[in-house]
Amino acid sequence: MDNPGWHAQRRAQKEQNLYLHAHRSHHGTYNPVEQIGPMDESFIGGFHNMPPPSPGPPALPPKDFPYPRHHNGSYFAPQTQSTVTITQLAGMSAVERSQTLRVARMEPHLQFMCGPLLKYDTVDEQGIWHGAVLVVTADSGSIYEPHPTLVYEWDPDKRSQPTQFQRSSSSHSNGQRTGASFDLGPHPADPHSTVMPASPQKSTFPSASSLFASPNVRQNGEAPGPNASRESVLGQEIWVYGGQGGTFTFWRFMIRIPLAEHEMAVTYSVNHGQKLEFFVPGRNQNMRWAAHSCNGFSAGVNPDDFRGPGYRSGYDPVWMDLLSKHTEKPFHVLVGGGDQLYCDSLMRESEMQEWVSKMKPEEKKSYQLSEEMELAIDRFFFNHYCQHFRSGAFARANSSIPMLNMCDDHDIIDGFGSYPDDMQMAPVFRAIGARGYHFFLLFQCFINPAVDGTQDLPGQHVYKSIVIGTPGPFIPLPSHSTLSYLGPHEWILMLDCRAERKKDQVCSPGEYQKVFQRLNALPRGVEHLIVQIGIPIAYPRMVFLEAALESKFNPLVALGRNGSMGLTGFVNKFNAEAELLDDLNDHWTARGHKRERNWFIEQLQNFSRAKRVRVSFVSGDVHCSAVGVLKTLKSKGKPEIPPSNDPRYMINVVTSAIVNTPPPNGVITMVSSLATKVHKTLHHIDTDETMLPVFETDTSGKPQKQKYIMGQRNWCQVDWDTQTGELVFDIRVEKEKGYGVTAGYPVRTPPPGWQAGAGLP
């Protein structure tokens, strides 16, 4: 449940009040909440990489130095694979020194606002990997002659060897922990690297070739093999944003890579600039992937409360843990399960304040959208996306692990789709939904329907994985789900549960029809289908709370609507209903969605039985981790069906949040107490539902009472067990707030052990 706590809500209300009285500048315009400038080219990919100055003594460490001290008082520092001493530099010619120390620069120059971002599409029947790169450039500072070009390279004869990762912690003599070292090697996207060419260590410099070449070249120095390939692709202009700061172009570069027998590293660069790297699996390999959700902070939460020693931001610690696992065994896909950013601060834009300040819901519903508000909405989404997707450790991840993203409400605005129809149809709210979904498709999926169309028949869309539904009731675009290959035994459905959502509908019948049509066409040999849905489908339900908050006799709602006793934060700013009600209405178990939920589960059971495919769910949203399970209802006097032989056996892995604050302890305790409650909702189709006691110990290994729900920041790494055929979901839970180091809680789901087409037990 998206509940950061009472104190955070009060803080958010106070902050919101500061924006209610907006003033125009002397130009007659309002100042935006967020306003960004172009990226420094040295920070592309999330890594500052400045050219070295004249040799001199090492600079003193900054206040929040990311590396701890050795016992002798000196600092840990990253180990570079290739260095050159001052003596060697002095013996070189000027040309050689220039070549050694030169930093890669784009030629012709592009002024980046965001990117590069990586997207994964799918692998086709011929074993061709399909994906894309997106960059956003400022037109006034870029040169487009010749056309922006992406170059990518791979070598099928060379086995990938990811950069080694070192993590060490420091402590005082009393054993108290003070910090951590995050040495990800000289990757050009490292957001926490402070030992750069500008800070030489022991009179040595990292050479330019060691910084920008592929890690495989850096480690073994081998020349490219005879089958090494290099491709160039021209950028496609898919959209132009125009605002007070000028015009900005979205460039998309499509990538196609024939898979080899083994895993490969692929390097890429835009206009001969910095080289970045990602990994693709072997042709017969099931992919390693990471799942995350809720990549931002709720209003009123102080990010610095989650910033441990050595971190520049509370956003980074758990992302750095994910990146450390990526350097040990690279992930092939990064699955964003919703709320990849929080857009609720749109309500702080000056142009929105007159609408926000209307106390009566009827006034908000009838308020007409002005041209100023339209411009402010686009300005906010553009600035907010650029700022969020190019910052910190997340920038490193989205430029080095291809993304598969699906939106949830905060990618648009808090609760969108779960308010009453008359509120959703209000001119201002519809505009927010339409533009929020437009920017989601652009930044997270690299799609512009005006360019790419809305047809998903083979050959009619730029992405092979796309499954396009019907136009939404409040968003003037159809839903965009995807069905992607994760290996010969594994596929993933990213189900769009937001574009067609309303209070009594998650997905339309038309969307379900298209999705199941594609599922039934999956190739032979697939054993696991992962269904990514933003909201958990097997999770403790709070029907009593939903009823209490909907009641017109609830005194807290009445006081909140009147602004009495400081309870304005108890009701939302859109239609003055209870603040938590939109979260409860979002849930699959809400009254308006329960029948659809039961039908959807039954259809997936039929699919599982007929196609001999194990179905598992991955969800986010609730800011804690848990694992729910659906299974065949045990008959009296008969043994329980083993999971491997049960087509109804489906786990729901809940991983949330990688950044946001967990719910208050009281909420965690309440939800945990409901985890073992018996629900008879699905007994008519012989299905039982419960929660798995995954968290029998806390992150330090000590036994704990609450075994079903873990209220600490987390993400999940997923791999296929080559020995058993099981899919292993390893939920990585942050051990200590702000430190980023995680403990693992693995959960396994077996391959199907029944015959295709067999009847349900």
Automatic annotation (TrEMBL):
CDD domains: MPP_PhoD. Residues 273-546, 558-723 form the PhoD-like phosphatase domain. One of its GO terms (cellular component) is membrane. Residues 152-229 are annotated as: Disordered. InterPro entries: PhoD-like_MPP, PhoD-like_sf, PhoD_2-like. It comes from the Eukaryota. Residues 161-179, 200-219 have a biased composition (Polar residues). This is PhoD-like phosphatase domain-containing protein. It comes from Crucibulum laeve.
